[in-house]
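Would you kindly consider the sequence and fold I have copied below?
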Amino acid sequence: MPHFLDPHMYDLANPELWVGIGLLLFFGILLLAGVPKLVAGVLDAKAAKIQAELDEAARLRAEAEALLAQIRQEKAEAEAQAAEMLAAAEADARRLEAEAKVKLEEDMARRQQLAERRIAQAEAQATADVRAAATDQAVRAAEDILAARLAAQGDPQADAAIAQIAARLN
């Protein structure tokens, strides 16, 4: 049998009855004083504060996600720009290499032509020197031969002719 159905429970000398009555009076005073409204107000304020913090956290998360998306987009743009710059640098390097190769070939051709001209000039000079030396040698030989013949004969016209030949050959 439950304890509150016991007739001894409602005896005024029973301390448990007075504890129950005191408890009911305490709860009644609390209700009359508006404590539940105060507790509910405090809990509502706490809930509103928590909701505001959750809303702020959601807003911050949305901002962070937007910022992350922006950073990823900027990173992709930077990578694309870097790839374009690399491709442009490679194209410039190939173009500069081709230009340098052409310039080098032109320079080599010009130097080869210059060397060939110098060789040709040297050959022409050597040929002229050889001819001059051969002419001088021939003139001396002719002078010696004619001088030997003329020494035996002594002709003034022959001396004049020899002088003319020497002047014409040089």
Summary: The CA atoms of residues 100 and 106 lie 10 Å apart. Helices lie at 15-33, 35-153, 156-169. The chain is about 90% helix and 0% strand. The longest helix spans residues 35-153.
